[in-house]
Design goal:
This protein is α+β, with helices and mostly antiparallel strands. It has one domain (16-260): Jelly Rolls, CATH 2.60.120.620. It has 6 helices and 16 strands. The chain has helices at residues 7-16, 27-41, 57-60, 69-72, 83-90, 93-103, and strands spanning 18-21, 52-55, 73-77, 107-115, 125-128, 136-137, 142-148, 159-161, 173-174, 187-188, 198-200, 207-210, 216-218, 229-236, 240-241, 257-260. Strands 1, 2, 3, 4, 7, 12, 14 and 16 form an 8-stranded antiparallel β-sheet that branches. It is globular, with a radius of gyration of 18 Å. The chain starts with 6 loop residues before the first helix and ends in an 8-residue tail after the last strand. The mean pLDDT is 96.
Length: 268
């Protein structure tokens, strides 16, 4: 499938660090992915091997009592062995066509999540840069995708971005020092509430593509409902590990799965 990314789209992405594509997925696709999530966290389907099911920290510490698995769960990640989620979303030809316009034709999936953001908990994620988690380069051949599974508004904690921040460097990150912070929800040092940001309000099926150096985060869910989204990060199969960060034999990193094109020797 030829990439639908136009010259104007690419200019916006290069200048702003992100690009929102409206209505990329239809309701039936979105419903199948969230239903799978609910089946997993409610115990109707066993989690796939190596999948991580993460309770919200306030639930885990007994500060908030959740009345269901769905209400207790912040997110699941590493679903590369779940065919409904991985094949349905991460291998989706419509999504990969856009990714190809940024990463090139040879693409690996490097991380995936379905973020639930339940009500009644803090659930904020401070401004951060995803390149922190990826020990390979070049950064310009890495892209994050984030698809709204339902309406995302300022009230329920939509994504926020700092346009143009991808032109800067990878900043030091640290725990924000809030009372209840989910595991690894670190923030970029010096980027607090005073940092100007844009709220990306989205409808179900809308998808944002963003650069790994783009400062982004999300606020508290102040509504009575959930704010689910599904996400995958991709990289060109030609990316190479930073010196000293090559994986050790037998482990060290989550698997990077080839989803399109061919692998390259000596690369990720």
């Amino acid at each position: 499938m030829a990439s639908p990314l136009t010259a104007a789209d690419r200019k916006h992405y290069d200048e702003q660090g992100f690009l929102v594509v409206r209505g990329l997925f239809d309701p039936a696709e979105l419903e199948s992915w969230y239903r799978r999530f609910c089946d997993i966290v409610e115990g109707r389907v066993a989690p796939a091997e190596r999948m991580v099911v993460m309770k919200d920290v306030m639930v885990a510490k007994g500060v908030v009592e959740a009345d269901s698995g769905r209400a207790a769960t912040a997110k699941i990640q590493d679903f590369h062995e779940d065919p409904v989620l991985f094949d349905g979303y991460c291998r989706n030809p419509k999504l990969l066509a856009w990714v190809e316009g940024i990463c090139g034709p040879d693409i690996k999936s490097i991380h995936n999540m379905l973020i639930n953001k339940p009500p009644g908990v803090d659930g904020r994620h401070p401004l951060h840069q995803d390149l922190l988690y990826f020990p390979f380069r070049p950064a310009d051949r890495i892209v994050g995708t984030w698809t709204a599974l339902g309406p995302c508004t300022r009230e329920n904690g939509c994504l926020v971005v700092v346009p143009g921040s991808q032109k800067g460097e990878l900043l030091p990150h640290e725990n924000p020092g809030w009372d209840y912070v989910n595991f690894l929800y670190v923030g970029a040092r010096g980027q607090g509430e005073e940092t100007e940001r844009v709220h990306l309000e989205m409808e179900a099926g809308d998808t944002v593509f963003f650069h790994p150096l783009l400062l982004h985060g999300s606020g508290r869910n102040r509504s009575s409902g959930f704010r689910p989204a599904i996400s995958c990060h991709y990289a060109s199969a030609e990316c190479r590990f930073l010196e000293g960060h090559e994986p050790r034999p037998g482990g060290g990193f989550r698997p990077y799965v080839l989803v399109q094109g061919r692998a390259h020797e000596g690369c990720i």
